[in-house]
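Quick one:
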Amino acid sequence: MHWELYERQRATLVLIGVVFLSVLLLAFQRSAVVQHIKSFFVACTFPSQRLFSQLSAPVTPSSPAAPAIPSAPVSEELGALPDAAADWRAEKFRALKVLADENARLNALLGLKRERWPRLVAARVVSRDPQRWFQEILLDKGQEDGLQVDDPVIAPVGNYEALVGRIVEAGARTSRVMLVHDSLSAVAATVSGASADDGVVEGSNSQDLYLRYLSRESQVKIGDSVATSGLGRQFPAGVPIGWVRDIQLDDRQLFLQARLNPALAASPLRIVGVLVRRD
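Output:
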């Protein structure tokens, strides 16, 4: 009798157990035990995440055999190689361009390390959840490389750097980064130019960034650049964030807010630099 009752209630009991375990994990998500468990699962899934990331990116063909090109002359109307050869060459060109771009980013990071950030650690983006595209990325460096929670993350853009976000979870060999585009992100910022106003840059889970809490008498103008202010000591001063795109009053009509064009596009993002602040 009891066994039959158990069979009927088994699904309910399993659901109650899962809910109870979930509540415990949420309640103690900052505890050392839970952090170790999360790091263990990240370490277990890291190889597959890295493999999928590599498969999704263009790769250089490994000594492919070029397709045979007919000896017959190509008509002037076509004016091109046969489709198979053209596709192969286009793919090879794209792969070489990806490698060249990656090499350029690494060289740019090395230049930034020499000139501005001697404690910079280069890291590769190995995973990105399509459901949280504007919110987080996973890096292939962690505590063993000196990275810790709240370390700022930047990326090269031409001859300067741009803010990416900050580390919110650091495992032994991987780290999770909250992007500046995340709606939970808040960065103390300042406007360049005559206004020199301070505000807070917040994300919107999209490409748009917003500089909030500007005085209604602010002289901020479209095109003004916005960078980290250094207030709060979470981010160093002077890291570019974006440029003012438009200005309006906030919903409560108390402050001005500016929508920004980000200095760094959210995609593609392959290589970043972590500004390690502590030993």
